[in-house]
Amino acid sequence: xxxxxxDLRTDTITKPxxxxxxxxxxxxxxxxxxxxxxxxxxxEAEMAALMGKEAALFVPSGxxxxxxxxxxxxxxxxxxxxxGDDSHIHLYENGGIxxxxxxxxxxxxxxxxxxxxxDRIVAAIRSPDGVIYxxxxxxxxxxxxxxxxxxxxxxxxxxxxxxEIAKSRGLKLHIDxxxxxxxSVALGVPVDRLVKAADSVSVCLSKGLGAPVGSVIVGSKAFxxxxxxxxxxxxxxxxxxxVLCAAAHxxxxxxxxxxxxxxxxxxxxxxGLNKIEQFTVDxxxxxTNMVFFDIVDSRISSYKLCQILEKRNVLAxxxxxxxxxxxxxxxxxxxxxxxxxxCFEKAVxxxxxxxxxxxxxxxxxxxxxxxY
Length: 372
Hints:
Elements: E1 6-7, H1 18-25, H2 38-51, E2 55-59, H3 62-73, E3 79-84, H4 88-91, H5 96-99, E4 104-108, H6 118-124, E5 136-143, H7 156-168, E6 172-177, H8 180-187, H9 191-194, E7 200-204, E8 215-219, H10 221-233, H11 242-255, H12 259-274, E9 279-280, E10 290-295, H13 302-311, E11 314-315, E12 317-320, E13 323-327, H14 334-352
Parallel strand pairs: 1-11, 3-4, 3-5, 5-6, 6-7
Antiparallel strand pairs: 2-8, 7-8, 9-10, 10-13, 12-13
Protein name: low-specificity L-threonine aldolase
GO molecular function, one term: L-allo-threonine aldolase activity
InterPro entries: ArAA_b-elim_lyase/Thr_aldolase, Low_specificity_L-TA-like, PyrdxlP-dep_Trfase, PyrdxlP-dep_Trfase_major, PyrdxlP-dep_Trfase_small
């Protein structure tokens, strides 16, 4: 029997549950581009209601969800979007808003908690007086949870404040809510309240929720009507998409209530890693399903560590030469956490004894792969 692999690289590697597969097998489907797919329509209506918005649209990926959202709001080339310099849209989506949409990013420094300072956001908004020289600010983007901050949550108070600024300046607010349900559970705030100030939200179904494919965009009916047109333009107009929406429906129904367990296990993992002399973890920053830890021993690199862990059936991604990102999901049990901690301890022992010289990871992972 093959040894169990504890995969902590990301929460996108989950396999669909039996319930998801069963729902896919019996889904009532149609041509979503021509006449509409009945299962997709029901799922989109459910997601819109859950998020407190008028309408929703299923798209193949989070990258497309964010790209479509930005392009709807910034429908004039030369528009500008204010976003965090450490945000997913800015770093990990191939620069699509600029290369495809002609939208200029205006990055503002991201804080360790995933926020941008309010005064910096205000300062980044272009004055109409300089319109002949500058792009026109049309949109502000937030990210909740914030991946490069270790899955930190943006509070409803902060989000409301940014929404007030956007509204007062005639701008729109988009939330990259790839893991918005993780934020909702961690903060104890209903998800519709958490995104009330937003004009649009993208929600990834294949990350924390564990669906096999897809994201949804939510917003006003007028916004979604435009988004549907852009989805087709970008190649995201699929046909019998109800097969995927059926699995996504089960993911939302069954997984949201289990996210607190992922968060609890992430805390346990962080506390266990902190007991290893060669590591340090800011336990207070572990709010959801991610753990970032630093290596404080000069003899150990993250690349060597991850290589030894892989030999012991624990998969992890380096974040930099001296840091590693771990992500919990519904495939990870309490016993997996304890098993992983034992493997970390043994890997450190092996490395301190000079057990490996290779800096190369077998799966070809690089320090940039943690952004997904």
